[in-house]
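Run: sequence + zinc ion -> complex structure.
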Amino acid sequence: MQVQETREVACPQCGEHSTIPVPEGDVELKISPYVAAFGDHTELECSNEHTFWVYYC
Ligand SMILES: [Zn+2]
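>> structure
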């Protein structure tokens, strides 16, 4: 059974915080307002309907 942790990230456009699951405790998160074609990532939408992407580095 895989243990998942959660991390709080801020929307790059408005600063609204969202909670996302992360696969490992020591993974580094990189927030991007654009989608890129590399790495594991999650697409998020903040409560103000801004879409952004979080990459696991
Ligand atoms: Zn936002």
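>> summary
Residues 11, 13-14, 16, 46, 48, 50 surround zinc ion (CB under 6 Å). The two ends are 23 Å apart (CA to CA).
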